[in-house]
């Protein structure tokens, strides 16, 4: 479970934070876009942690993808980060959200 990686953060997260896949049972298929949108992350409020997840997929027919994430504190410092290759980007991204980076 993700909170086991950062025990001091565990009390801050309700158990429902690991049930993201249940919050959106009808996920729409991914539609790639050629439009570039600049994104800037903002730190969470003081005393909170922010968890970011992202994934990418190769559009070469290989089915290969990558998944990654990071936990930031209110000062914007990265407390934990991970990245790894995978095969099914959508399924793997939801699994990471539900079970944490160790799954």
Q: Can you give a write-up of this model?
A:
The protein is α+β, with helices and mostly antiparallel strands and 103 residues long. It has a single domain (2-20, 46-99), classed as Double Stranded RNA Binding Domain, CATH 3.30.160. It has helices at residues 20-23, 89-99; strands spanning 50-57, 65-72, 78-86. Strand 2 (65-72) and strand 3 (78-86) form a beta hairpin. The termini are close together. The model is unreliable at 1-6 and 13-24 (pLDDT under 50).
Biggest sheet, spatial arrangement of strands:
1-2-3
Supply the helix-strand structural class: alpha+beta
CATH topology: Double Stranded RNA Binding Domain
**What is the CA-atom radius of gyration, in angstroms?**
15 Å
| Beta-strand content estimate | 15-25%
* Mean pLDDT over the residues: 70
Overall number of structural domains? 1
CATH 2nd-level architecture? 2-Layer Sandwich
